[in-house]
Amino acid sequence: MKTRHGISAVMLTAAALAGVGMFASSVLGLPQGGGQVQVPTSAADFFLPGTQPNKDSLSFEPIQASNNCSYCHGEYNATVAPFDSWVVSMMGQAARDPVWHAALSIANQDANLAGEFCIRCHAPGAWLGGRSTTGDLSQFGAEDFDGINCHFCHRVVNPTAGALSAVGYPNNVDLTPDPEILAALTAEGLLPDAALGNASFVVDPHDVRRGPFDDIGINFHGGPELVFSPYHANGAMCSTCHDVSTPTLSKQPNGSYALNALGAAHPTMVKGDMFPEQRTYSEWLNSTFATTGVSFPDGRFGGNHPTGVMKSCQDCHMPDQQGGGCIFYDGDPKNERPDVPQHSFAGANNWVLRAVKTQMGDDADYFGLTPDRVDAAIARNIQMLRDASDMELAQVGGQLTVKIINQSGHKLPTGYAEGRRAWINVKFLDAAGTVIAERGAYNYVTATLTESDTKVYVARQVIDEVVAKATHLPVGQGMHLALSNVVALDNRIPPRGFTNAAFAAVNAPPIGYSYADGQYWDTTNYAIPSGANTAVASFYYQISSREYMEFLRDTSLNGTGLVAYNLWLLHGRSAPVDMDSMSIQLTAANPADFNGDGSVNGKDLTIMLGNWGGTGQGDANGDGTVNGSDLSIVLANWGT
Ligand code: HEC
Ligand code: HEC
Ligand code: HEC
Ligand code: HEC
Ligand code: HEC
Predict the structure, then answer these.
(1) Burial class (CB in 10 A: 0-12, 13-18, 19+), 593
(2) I want to staple 301 with a disulfide (CB 3.0 to 4.6 A). Which of 232, 316, 381, 487 is the partner?
(3) How far apart are CA 47 and CA 100, in angstroms?
(4) Among 418, 382, 380, 423, residue whose Cα is nearest residue 404
(5) Nearest Cα to 563, choosing from 348, 418, 358?
(6) At residue 28, does pLDDT exceed 50?
(7) Least confident of 37-46, 357-366, 537-546, 603-612
(8) Closest C-alpha among 628, 605, 437 to residue 534
(9) What distance in angstroms lies between residue 278's CA and the mean position of ligand 1's atoms?
(10) Structural contact between residues 82 and 76, judged by C-beta atoms closer than 8 angstroms
(11) Is 183 exposed, middle or buried (0-12, 13-18, 19+ CB in 10 A)?
């Protein structure tokens, strides 16, 4: 069996690689390089309710490492055993993620002790054990690199005990110690509003494990009690961490966000009053998935799911498998289940896991990151991306129309904004199959995307003049997670059931772009260049752009940015994933007949003027901009 000794020795190596030890002395409290001024926040500014850190192991039993679970819940069936898929998930590796290490160091540079907040979510066991008070990883024990692990998630308590019975689950939560735990928090004024998110979780102070099944035959856990928790089968369980709001910023009457008075917690503790860094849970909650659910007859999501109607986060991200919930039950017809939730948490990340494995070197296998599992996890993430969208192509007159349909349970893309982007690439080919024009070209050698002539889906968060003045950074500077206070652009495609009002109410409206109520797709038009015989359109997703990785490399002062950047180079520069690809045969058409009604007239002129200076319909010569040369083409073809 695995020894603690092995773990500590290995983690020292990983920490040294990440340059972790250098942090505290060289950075904290000092004005930053390039004249940047650090926001003088303290731990009080990052206070949030919920279970608080406690170093007393009698009143709070420590979160145990996953190797206390893996010998029964792992190593028996690669697709079913919870450990085998969890260990290669981004949540399992959240505390070893080199991109996170770099961003964490920058957050600490930007706002003193901001790392307290980051660690709370990315390494909750460390935070609960009181090992995040320096804001960095210097106090982490070996088990803290276990990230978001088994014992943590299975001790999480529903902050609104009982309320979930309303969505059709049997309500026997009375059997659990939950009411007592919640009453104790209420007495201390620490009970979080269930809608707050921000890792304001409630965790059982004792080793009482909660799970979705109410029919566990024998409790093999020895001492620890097992209790039934419908909460674990509900998206609300994921809400604690998948709505992220910067707690040092408050919404002002004019809608902007400004720094709170320093030295105190957020004045209202209401999510909507804090800056919206991520809103995945709220996006889902305001979609059709959270109400009636959505049927996928093609079975793309949910594994062995009996109906194929996808509702909760778990339905899509923890697909049902036929097998045993533990090693003793697998292969035993009497004890197998048709719906063991796979702990794959497949998402979009197709390279960071490989970087984590590289950093671990020879110890990767020991920690469970075996080559087979890593390959399987990357393949699952790529498949998830391919299932996330569908594409439709059409020719309308002289235009190619590319429609992208969002099939995911939230915006596409969703979640973390920095560096993530999705875009459309179009290649026009002549009769001989030679590419004669390309839009949204990506150079794989330099990792450079040509953005100006295509649609790129992103959320761009930046700083305004007030934060710029306080920090001496330029107005409009992006990527400083702890400082960003303006959403400059969010054109990501909404999910089914989208309404502008509901999304605005959770601080997640489209910004700088518009979607009609109910719209969960987007269309982009490209002028067909003359001589084009075929068009091939692809929809790409990239986790970490070159611009973001260069920012980490150049901004982090403790070396973690350079480590992340070098790993990025080593692992294919975050290769774009081809989510959809289709081709269409083109017919000769008048390039100025934008609406395809057979004649070039006032309607086409209106379309062109509507896009003047931009891209898309009206770009008769296909050079990427609607301008005077296109107007000449329209006039030359007028009435034809
Ligand atoms: C309330 C929970 C929460 C808090 C607090 C939080 N994060 Fe995250 N973070 C997430 C989630 C969830 C994701 C993944 C979303 C996704 O994949 O789109 C994420 C993703 C990231 C990533 C992307 C990692 C990668 O491999 O691409 C970075 C970097 C990151 N966070 C840095 C930070 C920093 C720095 C802080 C503190 C300022 C922080 N986070 C605070 C929840 C949180
Ligand atoms: C000695 C073997 C063993 C160990 C070690 C073990 N478990 Fe289990 N566990 C089981 C068995 C057997 C089941 C029942 C599986 C089933 O019925 O599908 C189970 C079920 C569970 C459930 C499901 C409860 C429910 O109501 O749905 C959870 C949660 C759980 N274990 C968590 C853990 C965690 C966390 C650890 C490590 C800290 C752990 N287990 C370690 C054997 C073990
Ligand atoms: C209908 C299925 C479905 C449901 C329901 C669903 N998701 Fe997803 N999710 C996907 C797909 C497909 C992707 C990959 C596309 C993407 O990255 O946006 C994804 C991606 C993600 C990512 C990675 C985002 C990124 O681009 O970095 C996170 C985080 C996530 N989901 C969390 C959640 C949470 C939390 C919930 C519930 C509140 C949820 N999902 C509900 C299908 C679903
Ligand atoms: C991010 C939170 C999270 C983490 C981390 C996590 N689980 Fe789970 N686990 C869940 C949820 C949620 C469910 C219920 C899913 C559902 O009902 O669809 C579940 C279900 C289970 C079950 C019930 C399956 C059965 O047949 O009894 C077991 C056992 C289990 N988890 C063990 C583990 C072990 C072991 C680990 C670590 C290797 C782990 N979990 C890590 C959230 C988590
Ligand atoms: C304790 C906080 C926490 C909880 C609870 C939590 N997550 Fe996460 N989740 C994170 C963080 C942090 C990351 C990002 C890790 C990284 O990339 O380094 C993440 C990443 C993800 C990803 C993205 C993986 C990728 O490839 O980009 C998915 C999908 C996901 N979580 C789903 C879920 C689901 C489903 C639940 C509920 C069953 C859940 N999470 C509960 C914190 C949490």
Answers:
(1) buried
(2) 316
(3) 21
(4) 423
(5) 358
(6) no
(7) 603-612
(8) 437
(9) 9
(10) no
(11) exposed
- Atom 22, ligand 1: residue with shortest CA distance: 100
pLDDT the model gives residue 175: 53
Q: Give the model confidence (pLDDT) of 318-356 as tens digits.
A: 999 999 999 999 999 999 999 999 999 999 999 999 999
Task: Supply 256's token pair.
Answer: 């902007």
**116's tokens:** 């307290």
d(CA 107, CA 479): 10
More confident residue, 435 or 58: 435
Report which residue type is found at 473: L
Contact 324, 77 (CB under 8 A): yes
The token pair that represents 504 in the structure block: 């605005």
Which among 341, 150, 83, 86 has a CA at the least distance from the CA of 233? Answer: 341
Cis ω for the linkage preceding 413 (within 30 of 0): yes
In the predicted model, what is the mean pLDDT of residues 446-454?
A: 97
- The tokens describing 93, both together, are 């590796």
Residues 6+ positions from 363 with CB-CB distance below 8 Å: 6, 10, 13
* Contact assessment for residue 395 and residue 588, using Cβ atoms and an 8 Å cutoff: no
Do 379 and 346 meet the contact criterion of CB atoms below 8 Å apart? no
Q: Is the CB of 316 under 6 A from ligand 3?
A: yes
Nearest in space to 60 (alpha carbons), one of 126, 124, 129, 127: 129
* Alpha carbon of 117 to ligand 1 centroid (Å): 10
Q: For tokens 């804001």, name the residue.
A: 135
The whole-angstrom distance between residue 73's C-alpha and the CA centroid of its chain comes to 26
CA atoms of 95 and 15, how far apart (whole Å):
11
Tell me what pLDDT residue 361 has.
96
Ligand 2 proximity of 228 Cβ (cutoff 6 Å): yes
The CA distance from 191 to 128, in Å, is 16
Nearest atom in ligand 4 to 156's CA: 2
pLDDT tens for residues 396-414? 988 999 999 999 999 999 9
**Ligand 3 pocket: which of 292, 414, 539 to mutate (most atoms within 8 A of CB):** 414
Where do we find the tokens 């990025």? 568
Give the Å distances, CA to CA, from 456 to 424, 442, 513, 536. Answer: 7, 12, 12, 17
Which residue's alpha carbon is at the smallest distance from atom 11 of ligand 4? 232
